[in-house]
């Protein structure tokens, strides 16, 4: 059972080009695809992360609630709503979007991330 509140019940309305996301990455150690544990203190190069969009402002044009987006974790502002941590960013700070609705889109590059 999920401990996160339903996204459509968030007591917040985003303004302008702002996007509110919940990160897919938990703080702490990670595992490589080969099963090697990577401690949270390990120095790694600039690594982008995925997050789920939970709210968008009225001027956001390329992402919708429920999309997964790729972002740079160094370009983020954190906010807590009802005990859950979210990230706030501008639409232009997102690097990519992954969504079912994009399949078969005529402006798609055909590349997969």
From TrEMBL:
Q: Which SUPFAM superfamilies match?
A: GroES-like
Q: Give the similarity note.
A: Belongs to the GroES chaperonin family.
Name the chain's protein.
10 kDa chaperonin
Q: What does this protein do?
A: Together with the chaperonin GroEL, plays an essential role in assisting protein folding. The GroEL-GroES system forms a nano-cage that allows encapsulation of the non-native substrate proteins and provides a physical environment optimized to promote and accelerate protein folding. GroES binds to the apical surface of the GroEL ring, thereby capping the opening of the GroEL channel.
Coiled-coil intervals, chain numbering: none
Instruction: Fetch the CDD domains from UniProt.
Output: cpn10
Keywords for the protein's UniProt record, in alphabetical order:
Chaperone
Oligomeric form and interacting partners:
Heptamer of 7 subunits arranged in a ring.
Q: What PANTHER family does the record point to?
A: 10 KDA HEAT SHOCK PROTEIN (PTHR10772), CO-CHAPERONIN GROES (PTHR10772:SF58)
Record-linked InterPro entries: Chaperonin_GroES, Chaperonin_GroES_sf, GroES-like_sf
Pfam hit, one: Cpn10
Q: Which Gene3D superfamilies match?
A: GroES chaperonin
Q: Which domain of life is it from?
A: Bacteria
């Amino acid at each position: 059972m999920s401990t996160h509140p339903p996204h459509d019940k968030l007591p917040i309305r985003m303004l302008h080009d702002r996007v509110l996301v919940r990160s897919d990455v938990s703080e702490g150690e990670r595992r490589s695809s080969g099963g090697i544990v990577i401690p949270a203190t390990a120095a790694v190069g600039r690594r982008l992360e995925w997050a789920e969009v939970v709210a968008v402002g009225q001027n956001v044009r390329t992402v919708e609630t429920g999309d997964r987006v790729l972002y740079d974790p160094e370009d983020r502002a954190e906010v807590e709503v009802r005990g859950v941590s979210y990230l706030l960013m501008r639409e232009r700070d997102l690097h990519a979007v992954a969504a079912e609705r994009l399949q078969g889109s005529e402006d798609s590059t055909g590349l997969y991330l």
